[in-house]
Amino acid sequence: MIEAQRLAVFREVAHRGSFAQAAQALRLTPSAVSQQMAALERAAQAGLFERSTRGVTLTAAGQALLRTADTIHGELHRAERALARLREQGPPSLTVATFASAGMLLLAPALAALNDREDRHVDTTVIESEPQQALAALDDGSADMALVYHFHTEQPPPSWADIAHRYAYHPLLRDELRLVVPVGHALARRSTARLDDVADEPWIQMWDLPGNALDALASAHGLRPKVACRAGDFPFMQALVAAGVGIAFIPTLAVVDRPDTRALVLTPTAKRYIGAYTAPGVPSNHASRALLDALKARATTVPMS
């Protein structure tokens, strides 16, 4: 039999890439960790590690076992939190990981509607995080729900498969990039613009997924734009547009209504798909199910023009 305690040690080794670092984190001796992993390999009847002077990497069998170890770790963490709530006899609680624009225009109104409707206040913790970090929080049991976005296709990207295949995905909203220009810009009086119209202007771009999506869009149309700035915050990007630093491409949900900029429909555009991941068993939890319903209801009312 594979013991849960050995799986916990194995997970630490796998994520840290070293017996010594895992031993330090777990307050064990390296010898004790090595013995635990040798016993685990015997129980699994397979080699789990490729050992080298730089540490360890997982074999195919190790990678398969890590998925199980991560799932068990997350479920145990969620169980501990649920038991603590029962001991304290407090209100139902939820932890939600979300990116900022969905938090402001989807999650906050949904939580307000939820607390207005429920008999008891739902004690909510919100973790602001980008999709990869939100999925990691879901995976290690520190979040019950993750609001995420992705580009290109309605289905989540294959690169999320290792984490996301263990959870249920609930699509919420389709969000398109808008071209944001200063109020005095030649295009500001128009309602639509083409990507070619700003090909020679300085661009202000986001890091990570939005920036990658725009880079791919530009490349697909043979454009090699001059990037004046890469930023990590959409309101900051829009402020830079107002200051004349360049033009920006901002998802509709994140565009701020301000008098010194204009947001135009972009052709062609990149679509940002927004959805929620829930952990196994979470939809059966009343508060989680109610929040998911409130998010879906809110998504139908969000103005996208």
UniProtKB/TrEMBL annotation:
Keyword Plastid: no
Domain of life: Bacteria
Pfam families linked to this entry: HTH_1 (PF00126), LysR_substrate (PF03466)
Family: Belongs to the LysR transcriptional regulatory family.
Record organism: Streptomyces pseudovenezuelae
Signal peptide: none
Residues of the HTH lysR-type domain: 2-59
Keywords: DNA-binding, Membrane, Transcription, Transcription regulation, Transmembrane, Transmembrane helix
PROSITE patterns: HTH_LYSR
Protein's recorded name: DNA-binding transcriptional LysR family regulator
Keyword Ribosomal protein tagged: no
MF (Gene Ontology): DNA binding
Residues annotated as transmembrane: 236-256
